[in-house]
Amino acid sequence: MAIAPVHGERSCYNSGVVPNFIVVEDGETKDVQIDKPRVTVGRSSANDIQITDVRISRHHCTFVAQQGHMMLCDEGSQNGTFVNGALVERSPVKAGDRIDVGLARIYFERMPREEGEEDVTWTGVDPDKLYKAPLPSKSDRLQRLQRIASALNSEMDLDRILNLIMDHVVELSQAERGFLVLNREGKLSVEVGRNFRKEDVMHPEVAFSRSIAERVARAGEAVLTVDATSDDRFASLSSIHEIAPRSVLCMPFQERSGLTVGVVYIDNRIARGVFGPEHLQALQSFADLAAGAIHRAQTERERDQALERVQAMYAELKNRFEEQGGRLQEMERALKVREGQVGTKYPYDNMIGTSEPMRRLFRLLDKVVDSEEQVLIEGENGTGKELIAHAIHRHGKRQKGAFVAENVAAIPETLVESELFGHVKGSFTGADRDKPGLFELAHGGTLFLDEVGDMPRDVQKKLLRVLQEKEVRRVGGNKPIKVDVRIVAATNRDLMQMVEGGEFREDLYYRMRVLSINVPALRDRRGDIPILAAHFLKTHTPSGLKPKQITPAAMAALEGYRWPGNIRELENEVKRLIAVAGDVIHEEDISEHARRGAHGAERVSAAPGEVRDLENLVKQVEMEEIRKSLTLTDGNKTKAADLLGISRFTLQRKMEKYELG
Questions:
Q1: From the centroid of its chain, how far is CA 603?
Q2: What distances in angstroms separate CA 362 from CA 168, 345, 375, 387, one per listed residue?
Q3: pTM of the predicted model, to two decimals?
Q4: CB within 8 A of 263, min separation 6: which ones?
Q5: Torsions phi, psi of 193, nearest 5?
Q6: How far apart, in whole angstroms, are the C-alpha atoms of residue 254 and residue 257?
Q7: What are the pLDDT digits (tens) for 519-566?
Q8: N or C, fewer C-beta in 10 Å, the chain?
C-alpha cells in the first residue's frame, strides 16, 4: 500500500527516498510507504498505520523524520513500544530494526532475514541457548514499572491491568508462560494465564503445578527450581509428572498487612535453569503492583457485596409486605425514584425511572430547568414528553405562571393559526367574539406545543416571527400584543430530516432547539419496567381493592417485550391485566403479542429439516445473553458474570472475543 506525499510537504527522509514500513499482523505482511514527516501508529483508523490488535492504544507511537534519520516515539501507550525487544520511550531506528506493538511487528525499511539476520521469535530449537539471555537492564525494568503504575491510575478494568502486568512479567523473565493465581476463600483461582506470545493459555486451571502454587501461598515464601522434573522436593507431586515443567519460579504477593493474596507462577517446560535469584528480585516489584491492583478490586468487590446485602434485605422486606397487600409496590416506586435521582437538584417525582438513561435525563433536566431558553423534546410516542414539559415548568422560574399545553396535530390545519395567536370578532365565519390565543393565555408562563412537526409551513413562519419579536397579532387584527412565554416543543418525528426535505423551516428548528432533550424509549431502559408496572398497578386498581401481584415469569415477559408504544402501551397492558387476571398475574395473562414479542428473538429450535451452524448459533446466543446481562446490571461486569453463572475472568475473555467492549 503506497500513499502519495501530502500536497505542500517536501519528501521527509534521506533526500527524497520514501520510507518503507513492513507491517506483519495476523500472519499477513504488507509494505506501507508514507512520505510524511510524522507517521502515526495505533488502533484508531485515524492513524497512518492502523493496527487492529486490541492490546495497543488508539494512538500508540509515532515515527518522526529528523534530518535524514528516523526517530520512534512512544505516545504513552499502556503495553509499550519495543525496538528489537527493548522497551523504549524514544529511540532512533535504522534499516532492519524490528518494532513490536502488541502482537504486531513493524520492520523499518527491510526485514532482517533479507540480510541474513535471525528472527528471535521462540521456536523451541536449542532452548538452553535461547533462554540464557541476560535479564533486561535496570532502566528497562524501571520503564515497565512506570508504565504499569500509570495504567493502574488510569485503567479501571482489573482484567486489563492483570493482563498487562502478566505480559511484562513474562517478557522480563523470558518465561514461556505465566500465571497469576488468587487465593479465594482458601482455594486458588487462576485470574490470568499468558504465554510469551501474549496469548491466553488454554485451560489455565490445569496448565500449571497447582501443588507448587499452594505450597507458596501457604508458606508465603518463593520457590525457585532449575529443573522441577528432577527436583527431590517435587518428586511426589502428580502435577509435575503430568505437566513436566523444567524451570519454575513461583512467588507470593501480599497486601500491606502481610496477608498472602495469591502467587505469580512462571515456568519453561523446555529449558533448564532459566530463572535465578536476580529474576526473583526483579519480579518482586511487579508482584507488589499486582497486589495493589487486586486490593483495589477487592475493596470495590466488598462495596458491591455490601450493596447486595442491602438489596437482599430489601427483597426480604418486599416479600413480607407482599403478604400483607399491595402497599409495598408504592413504597418500592417511591424508593426507586429517590435512588434514581440521588444528586439531582430537583425532585422529578412525576417521572419514574432508576436506569442510567433516566439518571442522565434527570441530570440534564437540572440544567434545563434553570435556563429560560426554548426547549425541544424529542422521543417516540408514549415516552412521557409532556411529563418532562410539566417538570420544566413546575421547577423553573415560571412556576407561578400558567402552563398551557396543546397538541398541534390535533388542531384542524385551518384553525392552527387562530388557536396559537387568537382572532378578533368577524375575522372569519364563526368568529362571533374576540378570542385570545395560546400565547396570550400562557403569558408569564410556559407554552407546551406537542407534535410540533405537524405544524403547517405558513404557521411555522409566523411562529418564528413571534419567537423573534416576542409579540403576536390576532387573526384579523392589526394591533401587536406583547407576550412573555417560554416555549417547550415536542415531536416524535425527525425534524432534521424534515428540514432537509423542505417540510420544516431550518431557522425555526434551530430557534426552538436551543436546548434539546432526547427521551429514551422504554426498550432502552428495561430496568424501569418493574417499577413502572408496580406504579400502574397501584394507580389503576379500584379504590379499596388490593393491588395484584406479578409472578417473576410474567415480569420477565414484560421486560422482554420491545414496547413500540412505550410507557403508554405498558400502562394500557397493566390496565388490561387488572381487568382480566386473577389476584396473581401469570405469564399466560400477558397479551399474546407481548409474550410472542418477548420470546420471538430467541428461536431455540430449528425448523423441520433445518440444520443450523452450531458455532455460529453458540456465538449468537452468547453475545445476546452477555448484552442482556450487562443491560440488566447497568454495565457491572461482576454482577453480569453472576447472572450468567460464569467467572468475571471468563466474561471478560468472551467480551474481548466478540468485541463487546
A1: 27
A2: 44, 9, 15, 12
A3: 0.44
A4: 181, 188, 213, 216, 217, 250, 251, 252, 253
A5: -135, 115
A6: 8
A7: 999 988 988 898 899 889 988 999 888 888 888 888 888 988 888 889
A8: C
